[in-house]
Structure formats: structure tokens, C-alpha cells
Amino acid sequence: MTTTDDATTVYGRPEFADIDIGDTMRHGHPDITDGDRLIVDLVRRRAATLGRPLTVMDVGSGSGVVSAMLAHRLPEHRVIANEIEPKLIAQARSRLGDFRNGEVFDRPFQEWKEPLDVIISWGSHHHLPNTYLDHVRTLLADDGVLIIGDEFCPEYCDDNDAARVTTAEVIHLADGLVLTSHRDVAAYRAEGVVPQWSRDLEAKRRRALWHWYKFVIDYAMAKDNWTVVLAELQITRDDLTTTFDEEHKLSPLIVRRDLELNGFRPLSTNVIGNRSVDLQSFYLYEFAPRARA
Ligand SMILES: C[S@@+](CC[C@H](N)C(=O)[O-])C[C@H]1O[C@@H](n2cnc3c(N)ncnc32)[C@H](O)[C@@H]1O
Known about the structure:
alpha/beta, Rossmann fold, 2 domains, seven-stranded mixed beta sheet
């Protein structure tokens, strides 16, 4: 469900039509370029470990910045940029045009059918429907890996919240509010009731987000990058709107629990940026699919 007038993320809005937003973000937003380099490094290490040509997909590749870096640095591996916004598809095609090992898949990720060795979800996790994780598991080889990095909401779970989240039976978003048990989901579906804990947690999320976005916008202003300032102002509004599901950053702890519940086990955790926890948003994880029962 959405409640904003223009129910689209900034990536599809007309005022950004002539801008390569992926490139611009890398000049005016903290932590993204460090994450790019780390992703390339993780894929290189994976390739070295497996010792065979890999098929790598960059889901929600945007304008293809990371896909192009990978195609350039790993010429013997197949790199697929996956994107659905027409403008971004064109930009990714142009970026990958120089690389024989690079290509673009221009349909929703859910429509890809071939097996994959590495799936990268970089900045895309909080834009994709939760069911995409199931699709990742069906596509990944047994020795495959999901590299998932995102701009999360800096951690807002206190110890009590963490105890509830780490033992959650389910992570279910009910109009943007987190539910953690099948009973709560059933009650929400039957009567629309939501535990007070879920509402309190959402208040914490919004406060943590506001603090983070002020930092991001000040960072962009210091670089005189008004495109990023304006984009982030819109993203802030989208994200603070609890029910706007296309821009909904959650705490790293909640996302990790969600991945575990979706059949993944963590291989590595990498923190990007060196700041206090309240301004620590970017994490890059490697997850492996657990064998199906
Ligand atoms: C924040 S952007 C990702 C940025 C990009 N990874 C980068 O490195 O610049 C999220 C992207 O996911 C794309 N997306 C959303 N749903 C998708 C889907 N079902 N399949 C493929 N891409 C999708 C959006 O169009 C958007 O460009």
C-alpha cells in the first residue's frame, strides 16, 4: 500500500530523467563507492575459491555502475545487469557495451530462470518484494552466494526488541509495521490489529531515519551536490511514510533475521563507514542458501 501522491521512487521521477542517478549518488552520497569496491573484491575472492567461470547477476543494477566494474575486473566471468526502469536499462546497456562478458536483463528479476553463481543485491533489497528471496534460493547453485548490501536504517532495536526479532517466527510487514509471529499476522489479517510493540518500533525507525537522512543531506550539501540533496529529500519523505512500501529501510538486525527465515545462512558481515552506530547505515553481507529440507 502507498500513500504518497506520486507512488514511485525517485528513480522513476521525471525530474531525474536526464541524470545518471547512480553516477551522481557516487559523487554526493556517503559510503556507496566503498561498497562498490568491496563487492568487486568479494566476487573476485569467490571466483578464486570456486576456480571456474561464474555467472553473476546484479539485481536492480540501476545504471550499471557495479556491473561494469565487475565486467571490467572479471573478464572471464559472465556479468548480467538486471534492471526494469527504461532509462536505467538504456544507461546500463551503454555502460556495458564495451564488455563482451557483460549483458543486460531488462525484465523483473522474478522472470529470470537460469542458475546463477553469485547474486548481488546492492541498494535493491528494500525496493524488491520479499518474495524475491525465494527466487534467489531457487536460482543459486549449492555453492552460490547472495551478496546483499544496502543502505539500511541505522540499528534502532534495543535489547528487548533484539530478543523479539532474533526469535521471530516470521518477519511480516503489515502496512509498514513489523509483525514477528504467525498469531500476530493472523490477528492483523482478521481484524487489522497490530501489537503496540510494532507501533513503538516504527516510531524508533522513523527517528533513526530522520537522524540518518539529515547526515546524508548535509554530506551532499557540503559537496555542493544539489541533485543528491533533492533526491534524498524525496527519499526521506518516502521512507518516513510508514505505508510507502517501495522505500522502507529496516534495521540490519531485522533484515538478517528475515534472511535466516528465508533459508539463508550468513557467511560474512562487512560494515562500511567508520562512524557511531546511529550513523552506521551501510552493511554488506554474504549469505549462502541453506539446503532445502
Ligand atoms: C536503489 S536502486 C539500486 C542501485 C544500483 N544497484 C546501483 O548500484 O546504483 C534499486 C533498483 O532496483 C530496481 N528494481 C526494482 N524492482 C526490480 C525488479 N523486480 N527487478 C529488477 N530490478 C528492480 C529499480 O528500478 C532500481 O533501479
